[in-house]
Specification:
single chain, mainly alpha, 76% helix, globular
Amino acid sequence: MTRPVDSGIIFIARIALAVLFLWGGVMKLLGYAGFVGYLHSKGVPFLQIAAPIATAVEALGGLLLIVGFKVRPLALIMAVYTVATAVLGHDFWNVVDPALQREMVIHFWKNIGIAGGFLLLFVTGAGRLSIDGARAPRGGLGR
């Protein structure tokens, strides 16, 4: 993929993914006690470590996606994180209320789809409209 339009599309994809995570990270910071309570209700182990890591992954990950810095390794981290949040946060197999279970199924598969987007970003790289692209030799997509 070396067409000029590709870098623009990759940039739009990075922004679309970043908005979700940057927003989530900021909301976690603003309502940190509530976020910790939610993790506790889900039985997440090592809350003292998990909560700040999750907040940092979302807030810093979102910012790094926007500027396009170290996107390949970041995309792998974000894919793993997104699958982990699907399994821990949207555990529809443990829900008995049919309406809530349906909603959890949707959120679970949404997260899996987002992880797929991150895997594609891992393959494409950040594109030219990024810090990675500015630092890369010309002829590629910022790999």
